[in-house]
From TrEMBL:
Pfam families: 2-Hacid_dh (PF00389), 2-Hacid_dh_C (PF02826)
D-isomer specific 2-hydroxyacid dehydrogenase NAD-binding domain location: 115-298
Annotated protein name in UniProt: D-2-hydroxyacid dehydrogenase
Keyword NAD found: yes
Record family assignment: Belongs to the D-isomer specific 2-hydroxyacid dehydrogenase family.
Superkingdom of source: Bacteria
Stored InterPro entries: D-isomer_2_OHA_DH_cat_dom, D-isomer_DH_CS, D-isomer_DH_NAD-bd, NAD(P)-bd_dom_sf
Keyword terms, alphabetized: NAD, Oxidoreductase
Domain D-isomer specific 2-hydroxyacid dehydrogenase catalytic: 36-329
Taxonomic lineage from the root: Bacteria, Bacillati, Actinomycetota, Actinomycetes, Streptosporangiales
Annotated source species: Marinactinospora rubrisoli
Amino acid sequence: MSSQPPHNVDLVVLHGADLPPGRERFEDVPGVASVRYATADALPDVLPGAQALFVWELFSEAVTAAWAKADALRWIHAATAGVDNLMFPGLVGSDVVVTNSRGVFDEPIAEYVLGTVLAFAKDLPTTLDLQRRRTWRHRETERVGGRHVLVIGTGPIGRAIARRLAAVGMTVEGAGRTARSDDPDFGTVVATERPVAGSAAAGPFAAALGRADYVVLAAPLTPGTRGLADAALFARMRPGARLINVGRGQLVVERDLVDALRSGRLAGAGLDVFETEPLPADSPLWELPGVIVSPHMSGDVVGWRDELVTLFADNLRRFVGGRELRNVVDKRRGYVSGP
């Protein structure tokens, strides 16, 4: 963006049922002329003339619908790590800068993944179920150390996951856009590709799937990753392996996942995101053995909303001052540029 500071910035905050906490941290930034708050239905009415937009309503599609009214917009900041809901053609092809909230969710999500691995390995769901039934049943459980995990998605969240899992003795491998053998967090990274159903050929990605006891999805949702985890991918996974998804629900073809679980191909799945949210009451994922369901909360720890506002307020000061913004997204690829 230009180094010339904009003057009298008009800011719009898109929100849902809740407003951002500690709003004075950005309302009082020198150079901000006005702050207007709008829900999705009101956004087209308040967006004209605004230079900055703070998307506080997580995963909202309202910006797409109101895009024609963005006559002065220069910058959008998303209170999320994923920005797939903003990657529509009009915005991608424009000069509007998009930033996200990278860094707020990395470690909490990594801790969630570690907790899910431990819950599977130590069979904690069965322990809790037996406790509720006052049933004493001795069982043997699995080791975590020495197990192999493939993390699909080598961005900041994937890297935090890799570090956490390696710290407990797991062998970690990554899958991303570019293959490499000297990655500081993953060691080896294979190039992600779509397995072909029924194909006998096994490239590096398919081979990595076959080595993994756990496959963790932490990739952004892009045209190339949508539906990546389908029947062909599950067929390449090691029999008895488990899937953990903390990326986006649309990375997984849920009907194929249900089939893989029912057939015993997969031993389990830890799912924090789903194709439809909230997860419909009639989804078989609620009751299938070996499935842990959580309501899109893997990154939401005490104080996370305040951290989001703090990050945005810092970026707003940078925007008003004409300085480089944090967490600029490569709109053509849908991910944050930089290391």
